[in-house]
Amino acid sequence: MAGSGYMWAFSAMAHSAGARAHYDRRREAGDRHTAAQRNLFNRMIGCLHHCLAHRVPFNEAVAFPTTREPRPALAA
Fold this sequence. Notes:
4 helices
């Protein structure tokens, strides 16, 4: 699965502005190429699981938002 994940993430970086921005943010945060690409793949797997579990179509704007809005604090 690692090989297919590598290819899927690599292709997504070339064709998806959101995926590329996610990868670039991880690189800027100090991740090496492989770690940033693996993180992108994990994010994409999470999105796929969500779409299948909830029977909703993939939406890149939801999966890879371009603006950083503060997340609401979780109740403790």
